[in-house]
Automatic annotation (TrEMBL):
Coiled coil: none annotated. Gene3D superfamilies: alpha/beta hydrolase. Residues 57-143 form the AB hydrolase-1 domain. It comes from Durusdinium trenchii. This is AB hydrolase-1 domain-containing protein.
Length: 147
């Protein structure tokens, strides 16, 4: 099983640190309750805001990269499309603890979508879920929740 995980989920060494993206790097607790957040259980993400944006892109990166590697891409999305962008990490990638697998990938996608809906209070009609490579599979997993 470990062979297949490393084949399908080739997590690179972290390309960022906890201080790499001041004002943009955040941690999403599993319970979505920051008062009950336990160390090592939160999901790292980069939130790149755009003044006066209506739409919100939830970006799910590809295998072989982490959110540090896609920060420039997410920033350009914000600038070109004038949208907010949340780039989410997966367990076992970047600074996120855990083991990479299909289950943890989909769990991270679901948690990040719930964060955008419940914490940031963005209406489903204003959320654009975008993924690259295996992130596209996670985006398709979230499609039914966009109704």
């Amino acid at each position: 099983m470990r062979f297949f995980s490393s084949l399908f989920f080739p997590a690179p060494n972290p390309s960022y640190t906890a201080t790499s993206f001041p004002g943009e790097l955040l941690w999403i607790p599993q319970s979505l309750d920051y008062a009950q957040c336990e160390k090592g259980t939160a999901l790292p993400a980069i939130l790149i805001n755009c003044l006066h944006a209506r739409y919100f892109i939830l970006f799910l990166h590809s295998n072989g990269e982490d959110i540090g590697m896609c920060h420039t891409f997410a920033s350009r999305l914000r600038d070109l499309l004038e949208v907010h962008v949340l780039a989410v990490e997966y367990p076992g990638y970047g600074l996120c603890s855990g083991k990479p697998s299909e289950e943890t990938l989909l769990s991270a996608a679901e948690l990040s979508f719930r964060y955008v809906r419940e914490v940031l209070q963005v209406a489903p009609a204003d959320i654009i879920v975008m993924g690259r490579s295996m992130g596209a599979a996670a985006a398709l997993f979230l499609a039914p929740w966009l109704d």
